[in-house]
Amino acid sequence: MKKLSNWKTPLTGLAILTLIVTLAMPVSAKTWKVAVGDAANSAQHEMGKKFAEALESKTDGKYKVNLFLNGQLGSEQDTVNDCSMGTLDFSLLAINNITPFSPTVGSLSLPYVIQSLEEAEQLTQGEVGKELAANTIRDAGVRILGWTYTGFRVLTNSKRPVKTLEDLKGLVIRVPKNAIMIDSYKAWGINPTPMAWSETFTALQQKVVDGQDNPFLTVHSMKFYEIQKYITTIRYIFSLEPLIVSEGLFQDQSKEMQAILIEAGKEATLHSAAHLRASEDAIKKDLVDKGMVIDEAADGEKEWIEKATKAVWPKYYDSIGGKDKLEKILNTLGRSI
Ligand code: MLT
């Protein structure tokens, strides 16, 4: 019977030539996609660039990532679903857009829990961060590899200076589709408008909404100064913007590659904190130079703090895993409920 193939057949001259040419060709790098919710020069972009650089250098250029800015790959909440299903590799997004999929991370965006960058670093890089990262794998099928630190979310609007809760009345404020943030504004006496981040600029521009909150760095990189005039420096949420990877993708990697991804995420995290420290004051000044007016919330923000913590914290004890979870977080920071 005629054999269909014979592995012992000696290589022909042509086959040898093909093999040599193939081996001599540069191996093309494996390239992953990273969705980035924010614009160029944002804190998320800075984080993404550092992660890309660390990954490339640790793998001698064999692994790269492409950053897709401005929500090109979908709304931030959609990217969590896509990473979870394995149709997207990585995403950089605000933590409040992960909370609907993994409610325990809401503990870090309860109003007035985190009071400084140092506290944000302490929590995210310590035991609390580890536990929340494990929970997001369990709940949402995504792994937090690193944390972007973007600063406190400040309130912006196009209508008038806001210092008191009385001033806030009557303004239409956009918030992410995040129950904790919606309830914070309700505690302050208004009904906010939940809306995807990708629709926010246009809604502000077309005056469908009067205002929104996000950190100085985001207000600047998104060019909100072109469509918003007033800023109030409330400090209710310190914005954390995790870099997440599809857990399926992570598990498909060798142990060595997994360690590289984790290391690259840590390097990018440290870089992000340094970037915030180095840039926030200059960005704030530039926003004023561009015509924005910055006000402090009246009376050390007392009324805002009291109303939000009293109404919102107890409502979320169950979803964050119990009152003792919040107690543990605050104890880590030397405070208590
Ligand atoms: C949001 O407001 O939805 C997010 O904070 C946007 C962002 O990722 O900067």
UniProtKB/TrEMBL annotation:
The keyword Signal applies. Pfam families: DctP. Keywords: Receptor, Signal, Transport. GO terms for cellular component: outer membrane-bounded periplasmic space. GO terms for biological process: transmembrane transport. Belongs to the bacterial solute-binding protein 7 family. NCBIfam families: dctP, TRAP_S1. This is Tripartite ATP-independent transporter solute receptor, DctP family. It comes from Desulfocicer vacuolatum DSM 3385.
